[in-house]
Amino acid sequence: MNRASYLKKLRGKLQRLPAHEIDAALAYYEEYFDEAGVENEQQIIQQLGSPSHVASQIMADSALRDLDETSTSTKKNVTAIWLIILAILSAPLSIPLLAVAIALIFSFGVVIFSVVFAIIATVLSIIFGGIVALISGFFILTEDWPTALLFMGVGFIVTGLGILLFPVVARFIKKIVVVCVEALARLFHKITKKRKEGY
């Protein structure tokens, strides 16, 4: 493989990134080849590793950079998670290491999804419970007004508590997504580091 075919393959592996990031990455590696000189072309190719390996690192770094710049957007965080997962899966790994990476990503995703789902279900059940207590209070108002007032008071308090918890929970879920992205990035760097040390 020569420089031109290496850079062409690298461009092909980076198609999921925005065009300006692809151009910047290729410009960096073209300059890297230029500085090494034509006589060291094969040595640089061996040193860099396969285009798939370089592309997976670029994609993961891009996802982390994007996350640092816009950590407030949940959509950007989810996109970053998917880019890192794609980078891990596209990295040329041995079959056992790839199986472990897939199993870790899957179990990590299931745990995080379960935690997020449980938190959302808890907040929604608090709000729903408050609304039910409030409605129940209105229905028994004519029969037993002290109990009705108690139910309505509890309903207002619980519904208000649920509504107050909602922004806190939303912020907490965003934080969980950010932590997931960082954990996946660390996993990716460990996997690719182990692979490099294996050479």
TrEMBL record:
Q: Which organism is it from?
A: Lysinibacillus xylanilyticus
Transmembrane parts of this sequence: 80-106, 112-141, 148-166
Swiss-Prot/TrEMBL keywords: Membrane, Transmembrane, Transmembrane helix
Pfam short name (any one): HAAS
| Protein known as | DUF1700 domain-containing protein
Q: Which domain of life is it from?
A: Bacteria
